[in-house]
Amino acid sequence: MFSRKQKLVMLKFFSMFSVVRGYNILIIVIAQYLSSIYILAHDKSLGEVVLDLNLLMLVLASAATIAGGYIINNFYDSEKDLINRPQKSMLDKLVGQNTKLVFYFVLNFVAVIMASYVSFRAVIFFSLYIFAIWFYSHKLKKMPIIGNLTSAVLTITPFFAVFIYYKNFETVIFVHAIFLFLIIAMRELTKDLENIKGDLVHNYKTIPIVYGERTSKWMLNILAILTVMPAYLLIYNFNIGKMNYFFYLSVILLFVFLVLLWKSNRKAHYLILHNILKFIIVAGVFSILLIDVDLILNRIL
Question: Which of 62, 235, 246, 294 has its CA 20 to 30 A from that of 87?
Fold first, then answer.
């Protein structure tokens, strides 16, 4: 049996893990490595990519920066989250605000140190990324449209770090990026619909509050239609192997999303829609493995 002190330490660990959303960071780390192996550095051997210390430092710097971003976001949204996510908020509060801020500065410092191993340009990149996350959490998040677009850009920024490192400018990469950006933009707007109550109480000027739920739904319709376009291009214009099944599934799920969207009017409904988009994102990460299994087996051998 654990002692009371050990239980408290474990609870605080899980609290901090919840604050930094460790599960999201793990998915991003996996996505960065898979995209490097299968897409960005497909002309290199598996060993060259996996054992590349520069890539490891970029991935770890991204993870540290994102974790810091979740902390500062949690810091600014703590009161709002009491309304929108009461259970998670109570778990997060097991770690004090001062402790969270200490972790925030330590993580950002570690991120810059890791980036310095790669190059001075990497230091500049992550310094700007850290500042952009803070500015978004402090100012831009409360602004309609700009806040949503900024959040979507910041979410895909870690992939630009790896993209710039490999200097791979193939068209297929940009089409993948557009698809991911649009799905994330849909998720951000759906989250706004899900969190209307807390946002309204704390004067967040989100799209549903400023323009209304109906307008937000029409915007999601437009984003869904736009998302189908890069999916179509990736299926029919590029060689992505069996990953095309993922994009077929994504189109079907987007259709289901739109059907459910117009029937949704409660937080629980919007949570289901949010989870559909999260599933598409996570499934997309692991579907990268389907691009060319034979090629990877050959690179292993």
Answer: 62
- Is 11 within the bounds of a domain? no
Alpha-carbon separation of residue 249 from 27, 29, 149, 229, 241 (angstroms) = 20, 24, 25, 14, 15
**DSSP H or E segment with residue 162:** helix 146-166
Token reading at 297 = 């087996």
Q: Kindly state the percentage of the chain with pLDDT values over 90.
A: 64
Does 158 reside within a domain? no
Q: What are phi and psi of 90, to 5 degrees?
A: -65, -40
Per residue in 210-233, pLDDT (tens digit) is 999 999 999 999 999 999 999 999
Question: pLDDT tens across 54-105, in order?
Answer: 999 999 999 999 999 999 998 888 777 778 777 777 767 778 888 889 999 9
Which residues does 10 contact at the CB level (< 8 Å), separation at least 6? 2
Measure the CA angle with vertex 184, ends 188 and 168; round to 5°.
150
Residue 164 located in a structural domain: no
| CATH number of the domain bearing residue 176 | 1.20.120
Q: Can you give the residue range of the structural domain that contains 124?
A: 22-144
pLDDT tens digits for 246-272?
Answer: 999 999 999 999 999 999 999 999 999
User: Is 261 within 8 Å of 217 (Cβ atoms)?
Assistant: yes
Whole-prediction pTM value? 0.92
Give the CATH number of the domain where residue 82 resides.
1.10.357
- Phi, psi for 206 (deg, rounded to 5): -80, 170
CA Rg value for the chain: 20
Q: What is the DSSP string of 53-91?
A: HHHHHHHHHHHHHHHHHHHHHHHHHHHHHHHH-HHHHHH
